[in-house]
Each structure stands twice: as C-alpha cells, then as structure tokens.
Design goal:
Ten copies of one chain form a homodecamer. Chain A has two helices and four strands; from the N terminus they run βαββαβ. With 98 residues, chain A is an alpha+beta fold. Chain A has one domain (2-84): Dimeric alpha+beta barrel (Alpha-Beta Plaits), CATH 3.30.70.1060. In chain A, a hairpin with a 4-residue loop joins strand 2 and strand 3.
C-alpha cells in the first residue's frame, strides 16, 4: 500500500556541524537501503525548505512506523502520513506496481 | 521540472447527478491525455477524501497553469502546488527521468 | 490494519427533513453491515457535534477508500484518516486481534 | 464514560538518552496499570509520529485529570481530550461495556 | 461533572425573520428548562458575537449529547465541549456543588 | 463586568522542581486572594492540560490587566480574555450578581 | 473602558444592490450616532478589505453587546473584540480621556 | 498615513531581570519620543497579554520600517502591520488630522 | 510606496458564464489602466489558483483603498495587503524607481 | 520562470552580535551576486518584520533549491515558495523579460 509522507527537519541550534553531518550521513544510508528494497518508492526535496515528500510502499502500519521511527533524524523530524489509493483516472497504479 | 499538486474537489450541492457525471467523464479524459503525454507523471486518490495528489512534469509555469486551469472541474477545485527538486538521498530522480 | 477516522457531517440547508432522514437510515444500515463484517471495529459520537470517531480494520487502501466513499452521506462528510499501529505500551492490539 | 485522548510527546533536546529511557520505562509501567484496571481501554501509536490515540473509561473529570497529569511524561506531552458517547449507528457501546 | 461549551450560531440567510424568531423562542424555553433543572449551570453571551459560553453539569456523555443535540438551533450551531475539573487553587468547586 | 480567561501554562525546562513549586505556591496564594475578594468568581482545570478557564468580575480594564499581569506565573502563561455579557436566555446573571 | 473591534462584512450574493445600499445607509447613520455620543471613539477602513477597526468606549459589557448587535449589518458581520487598557509607555490614555 | 500595529513581546527565559528592565526602560523612552513627534499616535495594552495595539502616522514605508526595527525590543517582538484608511462612515479621520 | 497584494477570486456558482466573462473583461480593462498609470507596477498569476500577486505603488492609503475597492470583481475577491520597503540588501528599489 | 519567495528570519538568542553581523554581511554579498546575475529579480523588506518577499527567475527547481539553501542564513530562515506565471491581464511579463 502506498503512503505519502511529508517530513520537515528541524535541527536544534545546539548540534555541532559534525553531529549534523553524521546524522545526515546515516540518514542517507538508511534512505538508500529503503529505496533499494522498494520500500521507499520515491523521495523529492521540497524546493526552498529542509523538507521532503516521499512515497512508501508497505503493507503494514506497524512495519511502516518501525521504518519511519527508525530514521536516524526521526527525533528532529515532523512527519505527516497520508494514505494513498489508486485514482479512478489513473492509467496505472503509479509507483505501486513494480 | 516536477510539481506536487494537491487537488480538493468541492462540488456545489446545486449540480445534478448528470452534470456531476459529465464533469467527471471529461476530467477523466483530460487527465488520461496528460498522463499519456508524460505531463501528469502520477496521480493517487487521498484515502477517504474527494482529493488527489498528483505529480506534474512541466518545464514552464505558464504551461503548467494553462494545464491546471484547463481541468474541466477547475472551478470546483482547490489546488495547491509544491515545486519539487531531486533529493540528495534519492538514488534516482523519481518520475522525472523517463 | 487499523485506521482512525474522524467524520464531520454538514448537511446543506436545502435538504428536506425527509431527504435527511432517508440519508440517515441508509447510513445506519451501511454502517451496521460494516460493523457486522468486522470492517468497522468501533464508532462513537463526538459529544456535542454532528461527528464521529470510528476505527476501521482494512488491509488495503483501495478497499478502505471504496468503503468510505460508499457511505451514503459521503458527499456531505469531511473525513480525515489517521493510520494506527500497535503502541509499544499496549497490553494487546486493541480492536485489531479478533 | 469514554474519552478519546490524543497525546503528542515533545522531549526537549536537553534530556540525556538515559533520562529519556527512564521516562519511557515509567510511562510504560503507568500505562500498563491503567490498562489492567480497565481505565485505559485502548492505546494505539499514530503512524510516523511520537503520538498516541487512547481511550479512557472514567466516570469523573477530576479522576481523569489526576490520571492524565499523573503520566510520568505529562510535562512533555500535549494532550487533547474529546468526550465520546454511544453512536446511534453503533451495534454496541464499543470498549465501554466490559 | 462540569463541561464548558462554546456555541456559535450561524443562521443561513434563507431563513425568514419569523422562522428565526420561532427558533429563538423555542431555544429560550429549552435553555430555561435546563437551567431550572440545574443541568445548565450558567450561560453568558460572548460580547459582539452570536455565540455563548455555557457550563453544563451532567454525569454522562450520552445524556450530555442528547441535551446538546436537542437544542432547537443545534443544526445551525457549531458546538465545542471542554471537560472541566476542580482546579487545585479553587476555594470551592464553582457551579458544581449545588 | 465578567471576563472569561483561558490560561495555558508553559514552564521552560530550565526551571528546577523547587522553582516550579515556589511559583505554584505563590500562584495559589495570589489566586486565593482574588477569589476571596470576589474578583475571581470561578476557576476550573481544563481536563488533561496544564490550563484553566476562570471568570473575573472587574469593572475596569486597567485593573484587570494589573490583576492578570500580577500572577506570579504570568511570564509563563498564554492568556486569552473574552468579554462576557448577560445572555438573553439566562435566568440570572451567573456569577455576576453576588 | 476601551475595546478594539475588528469587523469583517460578508454580504451574501443573494442581496440586491438596493438592499445592500439600504443596509449601508442605515449602518452609516447608526455609526454616526455612536461617534457623536463618544461611544465609538474612532473607526478606520482596513485597506483592501470590506472590514474596519474601531475603538469603543463603553463601561459595561451588556451595553457594548447591545450596541454591537444593534448594527444594521450585524447579521453579516464577523466581529472580534479585544479589551484595551492604558499602556505603561503611553503619554496619555489615547481616545479615552475626553 | 495610518498603520495599526499589533506587537507581541516574547522575552527568552535566558534574560536576567536586569536585562529585561533595561530593555523596557529604553523601549519606554523610545516610545515616548515617537509619541511626542506625533509618529506614534496612540498605544494601548492588550488586556492580559504582553502585547500592544498602536497607531503610527508615517508617510513612507522605509521610514516606518526604520522606526519599527529601531525599537530596542524589536528582536523579541512579533509585529504585524495593517494599513488603515479613512472609513466612509467616520465623522473625522481619527488620530490622523492633528 | 510599494504594497504587495494577494487577491483570491471566489465567484459564486450562481453567476452565469456571461456574467463571469463580463466581470473579467471589465477587470482586465481596469487592471490595464492601473498598469499604464504606473499604479499597478506588476501582476502575476499564482500557478494553479484563481489568484494573483500584484505590486501597487501608491502614496496614500485612501487612494489605495479606492483603487482596490474599485476593481469590478472586488466583491468576489479576498484581498490581503502587505506594505513593502526597500530591503537593505537590494541593489535598487525594485519596481519603485521608475 | 518566476518564483515568489517569502523568507522569515529567526535568529536564535544564542548567537552573539558578532555572529549575527557576520551572517548578515555574507547574506548581503550572496544576495548581491544573485541580483547581478539576474537570478534574484527583486527583493523587498516586509515592513515591521525580519522578513522579505523576493522574486527569483530560475529555469530549474534543482538550481533554485541550491540557490535558496545556499543562503548563509538558510538554517535560520523559514522559506515559502510560490510559482508565478504571466497574468492574463498583465501588459508585460513583469521582471521576467529583461
């Protein structure tokens, strides 16, 4: 099943540049794995904001929460989830069928 | 360039079922054309709401506005556009590169 | 999978009492069926408002949207869906396990 | 009487991992007791967020506030309460009758 | 138990002055009964707005909803309920103890 | 004249438990005096929140602001004031006439 | 005592130009009387909006509500009241002392 | 030209009482000068809040911004500006003509 | 002086296509005149919405309100005005100096 | 293509005056370069607020995000982007054509 996620990142000012870079490196690796596994079907940057829209394809809420709360930067992220279904006007089930 | 669109439909109560059906038929055809042309890269239904999230790939704002305001149901739609760019953690430019 | 739904009903003033009563009767029947099938696990009235909170147990977004948009009063309802997962402090998966 | 509670947790960045873990352990124990006593009838995780929806069955506001403000993490929680009553379409008084 | 209610009235423009007056007369009578029974402990007008704040003393959510949805003008009212409990600094349980 | 006040308390995390307790003790005393003088006609706890609704009977805005800004915890409080008048359906001017 | 009022006018589309003009004429006369009596101490137009900010000097909430709800256009106005007091940095009590 | 300003003050908890008092003293002096020059035509305290409404009479946006950003407490203030014009029902151009 | 205006158009469903077209023609002419006179320095369409951002250069609020409320479609427009001044980092006073 | 940007600056209180001044100097230089290159077509100060409205002319979202996130003060800025297109009533494509 598909979920649209909006994630806004708010690092506290107390983090050092090194800590921030470390978070970002681990986040990149974590995100890469999800993409390779086909769990994260897409991710885009919101232009001008430290935020992303991403599409997850997961068949279980518990699994999805484990994935989302597993992001290294989860503590500093405001995450909103929107369940998506196939649109009646869609020619195909985008990002869902393989 | 990619744009995320959220579209919420609010038909006034004064429309007859026939008028509504006609709008929806023309909207489906219009949307189908956009998908075939690769302008509308994806469209999903927001579960539980008469709304969609869709991804447009257009290289010009004027063209994009012409497309959006050309939807048969545009008058009854609340549309919000969010410009998207490639995310630094993305393994590919999803829905953008062919 | 569990979903919390908040549904707010806004009947237009143009409906006659008979039309309203007919909608409500069909809604009651529809809702009863969902409860008997174990799809709607619970439903409560929000005190003081023409609104409800309800819990749906459905394993597919497309099925869930079909169910929700199938409510007779869907056209007059503002519906918000929140995906739920098992809480780490929960002694059991409430309303989910049978 | 049933109350729906939405609780959002916002730990300040100044807490050490040990302090956070201690809070969470005491919260788990406190929550478990409430569930065993039938005061907390249900609790779910909001997918993607450090938040829960939970159902309380308490017959007195003073008692309910004592319970809620007694949560170890109360100081770091944003809590919203919604009184619930039996829905006219409900086949039973979910989570209320035993 | 005490509940604070905020009620905002929005009559549609289609009501005739006579219909409006009739609603208001029935609402006044209904409200008077509740006050005499000690169910509605207080009611005030919000200065400058067609709205009121009122205090209800009811020991059951189902009863409270029946009371609130029984207001003749319920259909044209936006009602928000806030459960109240005794404040630790209160010298007495205002409007609650007889 | 009657004023409804909603007060939300937000203590910064930097306060020690002793400082917090001291604030609360002074606030309790201050609030008690206002109640004895009939200035604060009522105060209730908002169930589940570190907030109160209270009714002030003061005949002058300057006096009211002096009273409100005199609360020991004023610096940590978000206060919203709503002027109240006698409701046309009220059987008496609640909390106003002695 | 001084009150700042913000009033937003929303005429329904069903009013004829004559009805609208009649409302506006009666409103102008009503407003003029209030100004002559020193009740309405000032009124300004919010640039670009069918709205005003105005200052009322009234010593009683009941009187103020009678005045505000007496505006011919009250039914079509959204009114928000803010109680004002003398500012500690003010060289005089503007619009209050004669 | 007249501008209505709403200013909300939010001192960080890290300021010492002495620093706060110093800010307030400089602010009082600065505000007094503006009033004497007829630039600040009026200022009132919002009852119950560390905020003010004030009226500025300035003929140039650049000058107005210089004035506003020159307030000693500007860094700790949330300022919203509303341009005002003469109301068609106003008997005079309040606070504008001398 | 420069003002940024955001204008959102909401035509009621009761207007006929002919009425709408007439409004739009008169609006276009009115807008053209303002641009020729250098009063309206710029106007853009908000992509995907029946709304515009426009820049006005007017030296008097009363004149600006007359201009804005003179738009043929004013009755159906939600207008928000933001006063602009020269930015300290601007290489020139854009759209202001000739 | 044109984009309207609203940027609100929120420096944390922990920055020293020297750090703030350094940020502002680098921001001024960065902004100057963008203006010279015709990328930033305009920038204005929002009167009374530490915020700006600016117009960017960039033909690619990725480039635009790189530019925006390259602002020295990006970490302390809340940025909202609105895509603009040519308005049907515009006599020219303001700030777009040369």
């Amino acid at each position: 099943m598909l979920f649209l996620a909006r994630m806004d990142v708010n690092f506290p000012d107390s983090l050092t540049p090194e800590q921030t870079a470390d978070f970002q490196a681990r986040e990149k690796e974590y995100s890469g794995n999800l993409q390779e596994k086909g769990i994260m079907r897409a991710i885009w940057r919101v232009v001008g904001e430290y935020a992303n829209y991403s599409i997850f394809d997961v068949d279980d809420h518990d699994e999805l929460h484990t994935i989302l709360s597993g992001f290294p930067m989860f503590k500093y992220m405001d995450v909103k989830i929107t369940p998506l279904s196939k649109h009646p006007n869609a020619l195909k089930y985008y990002l869902h069928e393989g």
